[in-house]
User: Fold Signal transduction protein with Nacht domain from Richelia sinica FACHB-800.
Amino acid sequence: MELYLNCALNDAVTLFSIFNGTLEYEIEDDEVSNTALCLNQYIDTIIKLDIVPQFKQTLQELKELLPDWMDTWEIYYQEWWQVEGQSWIEKMRDATIKYSNIGHDWKFSDKQKKLLKQYYDANMLLLDCLNQSKVSPEVRSLIEDNLFLPLDSSPN
Assistant:
């Protein structure tokens, strides 16, 4: 579900950026239509998942606010994203945070980003070593189950 939520938010931000002239690269008209279609499909997919009814209802309401993706060439489609896009994205992000606890804007400092990258790299190195080692399945499972956990949450 997290992947679909992330993709939906990214597509919404892309559409908003396209129609507000802030996208940093050129995009073809058919890519605009594809992005709009994907946004709708991601939301449809999430709604079909086993999620709390309130989240499902919120997503359905947000989807109904979107202009029809088939009208991406219409001027009102562009105007909708210019006028309503930012508000829609904020509502989508708020719902995502509320119901799935993802989508936060953490605003990490450069030092924090560096530490997170080091932590990630160390875990990836450990996984690479595991993939090349001959440890028992039990030991491998124990190590994998404890990767990426904070120090105080490892099972004992």
Remarks:
- The helical segments are 2-19, 29-48, 53-65, 75-100, 110-132, 137-146.
- The mean pLDDT is 83.
